[in-house]
Batch of 2 targets.
Target 1
Amino acid sequence: QVQLVESGGGLVQAGGSLRLSCAASERTFSTYILGWFRQAPGKEREFVAGITWSGGSTSYADSVKGRFTISRDNAKNTAYLQMNSLKPEDTAVYYCAIDRRRIGVIDRRYYQYDYWGQGTQVTVSS
């Protein structure tokens, strides 16, 4: 079973930046699609960004496109989410997750992902 651990969250002012990391416990991580999701209080978990195993294809929610960048370093079993120009509405718990069933198509539905990290809190103050 793959274990995922997120880190890098914190409190930042609007307009600031944060980089989240997602570290996996197994090298098989490198063969899976990875997604970043977030969940704000009282809201449903939503897709933020996804990346294929090779990093050759990425997908972003419209709300973060142009501000966030997803990447991965399979040699380090780690994925990243660089978040720039943060807004108060980006405040949420951020999760990384892997999809073991698909190869080239990034699914935006959270329930299609198999393994999840514990989440890291991101708070953006105005």
Target 2
Amino acid sequence: QVQLVESGGGLVQAGGSLRLSCAASGRTVSSYNMGWFRQVPGQEREFVAAIWESDRITRYSDSVKGRFTISRDNAKNTVYLQMNSLKPEDTAVYYCAADRSGGPILATTRWGYGYWGQGTQVTVSS
């Protein structure tokens, strides 16, 4: 069983930066695809970014492309989401997710991931 714990959320002004971390435990996730999603109350969970088992393949939603960067440190069993040029519309709870099936086709819907963290709140003030 894989446990995922997110950290690094908080309150930041528009234009600022945050780096989210997702620490995995229970099993090594070096062969898993990893993703970040976000959710605003009353809305569907939205895909943000995903990364293959190596960082040669990544995928981003159009809304964050060019501002956010997903990366991973397999030695630390950790995935990161560097968020720059933050906007108020980036405000949400951010979730880390793991896809055990791996492979270079990265899932962009929540149904492609079997493991989830509890989420970390990111609030961007205008």
